[in-house]
Amino acid sequence: MLSKIKEATLYLRAKTDYQPRVGIILGTGLGGLVEHIDIKLAIPYEEIPHFPVSTVEGHSGRLIFGELAGVPVVAMQGRFHYYEGYAPEQVVFPVRVMKMLGISALFVSNAAGGINSTFRVGDVMVITDHINLIPNVLIGKNHDELGPRFPDMFEPYSKELIAAATAEAERLNIKLQYGCYVGTTGPTFETPKEYGYFRFIGGDAVGMSTTPEVIAARHMGLPVFGVSIITNAAFSGQKSTHEEVQQEGRKAEKRMTALFSALVTKVK
Ligand code: HPA
């Protein structure tokens, strides 16, 4: 795996000497942040050696190098989900490559079902912790060059970045929620009892991504900032559909984009 990561990194390095400071993963229906990036180079995933190719609707699949609010970033437009059938190490392959490209923080976003009944559809939830219910991406041989065998997960989401986001959101007049993200394999949405169970164990939102990438990032010592866009009120007992998730994602995109643009400038 290590040699594949290095090959992909070398391929990208041969294309550009651009030095991104922040890596960004855009979730379902949230790809529009890209319109705010002053793009220097966009590379379709299929051109990058060993990169998996995204299959899910609403994900277009490009690695984008450019400036967001004057800060050099690399953004994944489209991510890889466990439910698509990828091996766990493939799901996080791009995160490994972005780290090798030299990023010093990872920003992640996703669409999620709200299980905290005080949340509303369209809310932006800052992820303060997670419960990972997807097979752990670090199972198997550990590559000491990437990180330790037993990484601690005491601060999965950077307290410093959460504090900075809170200050920026106040300045921008963006309402934030805070909470715990439950990462499941999907692809089924939850049964009513499953939603109740995830609430009972401490979750505020549930989705089918993010925890693998955050685990890989923390394994490599990267500070992480994450947000969930609440696209459906799972506690309401109403059905969830992929179309609804995409639609609500697009509506909240503006606020998330404003927050990410302000926060990238705070990363050293
Ligand atoms: N459950 C799981 N994943 C999701 C949901 C949900 O309710 N909404 C958006 N992604």
Describe this structure in words.
Strands 5-8-7-6-9 form a five-stranded mixed barrel, surrounded by four helices. The mean pLDDT is 91. It has a single domain (2-264), classed as Rossmann fold (3-Layer(aba) Sandwich), CATH 3.40.50.1580. A hairpin with a 2-residue loop joins strand 3 (62-68) and strand 4. Helix content is 30%, strand content 25%. Helix 1 (2-15) packs across helix 3 (93-100) and helix 4 packs across helix 7. With 268 residues, it is an alpha/beta fold. The structure holds hypoxanthine. Hypoxanthine binds at residues 111-113, 189-190, 206-208, 231-232, 234, 240, 245. Residues 111-113, 189-190, 206-208, 231-232, 234, 240, 245 line the site of hypoxanthine.
Provide the spatial order of strands within the biggest beta sheet: 5-8-7-6-9
**Main sheet specs:** 5 strands, mixed, barrel
Number of domains: 1
CATH class: Alpha Beta
Class inferred from helices and paired strands: alpha/beta
Any ligands, ions or cofactors bound here, and which?
A: hypoxanthine
Helix content range: 25-40%
Taking the alpha carbons of the first and last residues, their distance comes to 29 Å
How many H/I helical runs? 7
Task: Produce a short descriptive summary.
By secondary structure, the protein is of the alpha/beta class. The protein contains seven helices and nine strands. 30% of the residues lie in helices and 25% in strands.
List the defining traits of the structure above.
single chain; binds hypoxanthine; globular; 268 residues; alpha/beta; 7 helices; 5-stranded mixed β-barrel; 9 strands; Rossmann fold
